[in-house]
Structures are given as C-alpha cells and as structure tokens.
C-alpha cells in the first residue's frame, strides 16, 4: 500500500488523540467530599505571601482547629456576615478549647492578607490562601462560580481535632449563609 504524507500525519494524529483520551480517562479519580471522621489531605496553604507555606496537617496536629472556607475574599456575603461572625466569636471559640481559627479561600495570599487587615483578624483568625484550589479540590468541596472567575470553594465550616474532621457544615446551595456561620459551631467537650 502507498501512503501519502498527509494520510500518515492524519493516522498519527488519530492514534495520538486516542492514546491521550484513554490516558485522560484512566487518570480520572472518583472523588467524594470529605466527611466526619476523615483525616485532612496533605496540602500547603499560604499566609501573607507565596513564600510563607502553611502545611494544613502540621497546623492541625494535636489540637482543635475551626476552619471555615468562603467563595471569595471581599465578596459581600463573606465580608458582611461570614468573616465578621468569626471575628466576633473568636474569643468564645478559643475559650472552648479551639487552638486556631482558620479562614480559607481560593484567592492569592496578598488578597487574603489585605482582607484580613480590613477586618482586624490579626491574633484571631489565620487568613490562609489556596491559590490554585489544591486543598479545596482534595476535600472535594469546590464549586464553579463564573461570576468570581471559575473554581472556588463552597462555603463551609469544619471543626478539626488532631487533623481529623470532627464536625462539617457545608452550605446546601454552596454559597448561602446558614449552617456554616460562627454561631452554629458546636465544640465537643
Ligand atoms: C458573596 O457575596 O458571598 C458571594 C458573591 C458571589 C458569589 C458567591 C458568594
């Protein structure tokens, strides 16, 4: 059989497409959202700058941590209600045995730092950035929010005890302001 150059190229392209489609398919991992009792995934978050990594498993080892995640820094619901509630309740939560309160968003660390400064979070809440969403993807608690640019975190709160999830409150619609608010957190004795 005599093959022309274009037909050889078409054949190679078709073969390559098939292989890469299979490769893509075989690397898809069935995910399920993290649940009570699960250990947190290993992930780095960033505080104040990209040079300042915070390993979430190290941060939560051997203590109770309240972590809440928001769809976006500076957005109205997060700025007027979600973050201020945790600022107001920080001393109470700490008096109940919480070692750290952590706010996470799929934003860059400079944005998180500026948002924290605006809300006087220093000494109360650690403002941790998940710039490419790796932590939120590993929890399988992300959502697509085109008005905010695409992949973001669902709004949720979590009580973590020694790196394990002890309580989890994910907003049913992903962004509402109900079960994940600070005054809904119940710290187990
Ligand atoms: C908010 O105001 O919290 C918000 C705005 C847009 C998308 C998601 C949340």
UniProtKB/TrEMBL annotation:
Protein name, UniProt field: Peroxiredoxin-5
Pfam families on file: Redoxin
Keywords: Antioxidant, Oxidoreductase, Peroxidase, Redox-active center
E.C. number(s) listed in UniProt: 1.11.1.24
CDD domains registered for this protein in UniProt: PRX5_like (cd03013)
Active site: 78 (cysteine sulfenic acid (-soh) intermediate)
Chain ranges of the Thioredoxin domain: 34-161
GO biological process entries: cell redox homeostasis; cellular response to oxidative stress; hydrogen peroxide catabolic process
Enzyme class: oxidoreductase
Cross-referenced InterPro entries: PRX5-like (IPR037944), Redoxin (IPR013740), Thioredoxin-like_sf (IPR036249), Thioredoxin_domain (IPR013766)
GO molecular function, one term: thioredoxin peroxidase activity
Family the UniProt entry places it in: Belongs to the peroxiredoxin family. Prx5 subfamily.
Reaction catalysis annotation: a hydroperoxide + [thioredoxin]-dithiol = an alcohol + [thioredoxin]-disulfide + H2O
Role description: Thiol-specific peroxidase that catalyzes the reduction of hydrogen peroxide and organic hydroperoxides to water and alcohols, respectively. Plays a role in cell protection against oxidative stress by detoxifying peroxides and as sensor of hydrogen peroxide-mediated signaling events.
GO cellular component, one term: peroxisome
Oxidoreductase as UniProt keyword: yes
